[in-house]
Amino acid sequence: MQTFKTFFKISKKHLPSCILYLGIYVVIMILLSFLAQDSNDSQFQASSLDIGIIDCDESKASHALTDYLDEIHTIVPLENDGEVIQDSLFYRKVSYVLTIPKGFEKELLDGNSKNLIQTSKRKDSASGYFLDEQVDQYLKTMRLYLCSGDSITDAAKHTADSAKDIEKVTSLSFEKDHSSSDNLYYYFQYMPYILILLLTISLAPILIIFRKKDIENRMDCAPVSPTSKGLALSMGCALYCLAVWGFFIIIGRIVYGADMFSKNGLLCILNSFVFLLFTLALTLLVSTFSPNTNVLNMIANVVGLGMSFLCGIFVPQSILSDNLLQVSRFLPAYWYVRITNMFGSYSAEPFSMNFYWKAIGIQLLFFVAIFAIYLVANKQHKSGQIFVPLNKIFSAESN
């Protein structure tokens, strides 16, 4: 019991920094989840751009095309001068410049489809390519009406009517609450990185204090059995981790409401708890080497960022190469992300309870493996055998 009380007395000294980390990470997670959702929700929204149109034909067809684009975008007057056009694009006065050459209407009536117009756009902007598609679609539709026997005036009217119908795009969701479900998905998506960083930086220093030679010798002299001491430390670590993990769950409940404890939410909570076990085992293993604060920060960032980029936490697994994914299969975060992908509406991962339990089981195997290595390392640390050189390196760096 005395060891247990001492554990939390030491943890109180680290409480301010822990609260600071918790606050920063929670704010970042919530912001990332909502920002990611907002970007996905707006992917089908049409945008009005500043464009320039230089009409050298001055015909009914060219005027119809100008009027059509004027309804969608903002037309900025420009001189028919190459230098002026380039400057306007460079200084972002316009995003796109359309030049309608002389003879445009005649070529359109003759059925020609090549080199009807000339365009200038910035190479680093996708807006120009979107406008190319708009103009090309308009001209194709107009040619169809002209081929059917319509006059220029009628073809322009029918094309404009058709284009208005095309512009309206509806995004369908197959979920009851699309927005909140995806926000919850992003909230859990980033949790592994935060758990690894937070526990390694805040829990490991507490355990390292108990591993100092003088403190270990003093505790060995006390009337406390090694089993009792180990049990007290284990209970302290377990309660510490549960407190950190529970804090994130409570914050999720406050922010996302009842969705946190829906069926999908509970499955995500279980997934995060299993990953918490792995993170705890990893923290215990790191503490056996008694690194200083700088080394702890380095380990936390290398492991946390490495898993995040390799396993699909920061970069979606769908755009990672197959070879990289084959390597990341040997990391628990890969299986964690595979589960969260099943609950995101923007992922192609199909939902399967069989695969869910398979991924949970694999993460538990990682926990068992790392914990077994920790037990061996802890035993060797006490005997001062295999891990003496590493401990000397860490102690040298601290000096």
TrEMBL record:
The keyword Transmembrane applies. Keywords: Membrane, Transmembrane, Transmembrane helix. It is found in: Membrane. It is a multi-pass membrane protein. It holds the Pfam family ABC2_membrane_3. Gene3D superfamilies: abc type-2 transporter like domain. Residues 19-375 form the ABC-2 type transporter transmembrane domain. The chain crosses the membrane at residues 18-36, 190-210, 231-252, 264-286, 298-320, 355-377. This is ABC transporter permease. It comes from Maccoyibacter intestinihominis.
